[in-house]
C-alpha cells in the first residue's frame, strides 16, 4: 500500500496544491507520520482524553471509507482479485479509472431512485489475474 501511494504521485499533488495544508489523506498507523497524512494515535495505554476522542472519530471515518471500498469492489469485480500488471503505473491507472467510473455513476444516479450499485462495468479478463472462476 505504501509503495502504491508513493508511486501514485498523490503526495506530491497534495503538497503542491494551493492551501495544500488544508487537505489530508486518511491512513492507518503503518504509513508513518507525514504532514499530509492523518493516522490514529498509538494505543499505548497513555492516551489523553483528547487523543481517545480523536481516535474514536478517526475510526468512524475509516469505517465510512472501508464501506465505500466494499461497494466499489462489489461493483467492479476486477478489484476482487490481484491486478497482475507488469508495472505499478498500469495498476494505478486501472484503479484510477475504476474510481472515476464509480464517481461518475454516483453523480448520475439520483438518491432514492433504486440501487446505485446495479451498474456493472468489467475489464477484459486477460488483464486480471483471477485465482478461481470469475462470475459473469
Core attributes:
136 residues, mainly alpha, two-stranded parallel sheet, 4 helices, 2 strands, globular
Task: Tell me about this structure.
It contains 4 helices and 2 strands; from the N terminus they run H-H-E-E-H-H. It has helices at 2-8, 10-16, 49-75, 88-108, and strands spanning 25-26, 37-38. The model is unreliable at 116-136 (pLDDT under 50). It is globular. The two termini are 28 Å apart. Strands 1-2 form a two-stranded parallel ribbon. The chain is mainly α and 136 residues long. Helices cover 46% and strands 3% of the residues.
Entry summary:
The chain has four helices and two strands.
Largest sheet: spatial strand order: 1-2
Distance between the termini: 28 Å
> Globular, elongated, flat, extended or rod-shaped: what is the shape?
globular
Flag low-confidence runs: 116-136
**How many H/I helical runs?**
4
How many strand segments?
2
Order of helices and strands: HHEEHH
The largest sheet, given as strand count, sense and whether it forms a barrel, is:
2 strands, parallel
Strand content: under 5%
The gyration radius over C-alpha positions equals 18 Å
Residues in helices, as a percent range: 40-55%
Please state the average pLDDT score. Answer: 78
Classify the secondary structure makeup into a structural class. Answer: mainly alpha
